[in-house]
Amino acid sequence: MKNDYRLDETRLTTIASPKTDSQYAMLATSPSTVLGLYNLGFSDAGGYTSQVVVTTGDTSTLSEVEGGYYTTANCEGTVYGIGLATGPYSSTGDPDTEPVMLNQLTDTADGDEENVGLSAQARDNALPASAPCQGGTIFYISDSISGGLDSPVRPVISMWDIASGEYREVAMDAGPLTERLMRSDGIGYPQVSADSIRDGRLQWFGVSNSIMSTDLATGRTEKQFDVAGVTDEVLSSQASFQGDEVVVMVDSDGSNPYEIVRYHRDSGVVLSRTVVNFAPEDLAAGLFLRGFAVRP
Fold first, then answer.
1. Is the pTM of this model over 0.70?
2. d(CA 242, CA 292)
3. What is the mean pLDDT of the chain?
4. Weakest mean pLDDT among 103-112, 172-181, 210-219
5. How far is CA 214 from the centre of its chain?
6. Angle at 218 between CA 215 and CA 224, to 5 degrees
7. What is the mean pLDDT of residues 47-57?
8. Which of 62-71, 145-154, 245-254 has the lowest mean pLDDT?
9. β pairing state of 71-75 and 3-7
10. 3-state DSSP of the chain
11. CB-facing half-sphere around the CA of 285: CA atoms within 13 A
């Protein structure tokens, strides 16, 4: 809440950066600039506020924008957020019927958020902190029904055009797979990362610790291979796609340590396996593993 930190080959730099304590995302928008997005909460004006913290060199600047954004994307250095319409973008005042908004959060004329699009079809139930953005379109997986824990789910590839603000979706087709692509209780929610798109397909992690692949045009989905992982009501392994690899941070179930396993993202061949001999509670009391980053 007081500082940002940058660790490189030579030293650890501490940069004064007061802000709130709930982070949506942290994105490198250039080799020397990092943007952090934080959840400040409901505002006095009746909307919802997020903090945008931009750190460059040894300085950090903070600004506030309207909205809450569990889905974010870095589109060639410009950051976009997707969330439930709030404040001036609200049309119903009811969270169950509000549209979903796509807002540009950086590089705007006045420094505030800029609304790009609104959709009554889109659902605010996806959690990617770094959704892929390719060819001017943001991609992620969501549930088009979003009816609650006891409702069926209908997984779709959600797509937003950042120029027109148009939203569209393609239903995901599991074909002969017997496993569910998505659970209604949120366990094992599909994970994508900024480099998930490859050859017209969206690669993602989910379905009982598997690497999956979905055709962006047809929605046809296939299991590529199983990976090491621990996923249940409490624990969730995580994956990041980068170049020819997918790197999995295997969560600890208490009896086994954390592992970092690198796979070839197409063949599933294990490229390396590293045991991480630490527990989050050794670093600070009460912390959980929320995310990890793979060096480019």
1. yes
2. 13
3. 91
4. 172-181
5. 17
6. 30
7. 96
8. 145-154
9. unpaired
10. CCEEEEECCCCEEEEECCCCCCEEEEEEEECCEEEEEEEEEECCCCCEEEEEEEEECCEEEEEEEECCCCEEEEECCEEEEEEECCHHHCCCCCCCCCCEEEEECCCCCCCCCEEEEEECCCCCCCCCCCECEECCEEEEEEECCCCCCCCCCCEEEEEEECCCCCEEEEECECCCCCCCCCCCCCCCCCECCCCCEECCEEEEEECCCEEEEEECCCCEEEEEEECCCCECCCCECEEEEECCEEEEEECCCCCCCEEEEEEECCCCCEEEEEEECCCHHHHCCCCCCCCCCCCC
11. 0
- Per-residue tokens: 199: 């050859």
Q: What pLDDT was estimated at residue 183? A: 81
Distance separating alpha carbons of residues 53 and 49, to the nearest angstrom: 13
Q: Pairing state of beta strands 78-84 and 100-104?
A: antiparallel
Question: Stretch 12-33: mean pLDDT, rounded?
Answer: 94
Question: Is the Cβ–Cβ distance between 131 and 102 less than 8 Å?
Answer: no
Of 101, 100, 126, residue with least CA distance to 115: 101
Strand partners, 179: none
Question: At residue 173, does pLDDT exceed 80?
Answer: yes
Separation of alpha carbons 160 and 238, rounded Å: 24
Question: Tell me, what's the pLDDT at 281?
Answer: 64
Residues in the chain: 296
Q: How far apart are CA 113 and CA 33, in angstroms?
A: 19
Q: 11-25, 128-142, 143-157: which has the minimum mean pLDDT?
A: 143-157
- 165's tokens: 């603000």
The alpha carbon of residue 49 and the mean position of all alpha carbons in its chain are separated, in whole angstroms, by 19
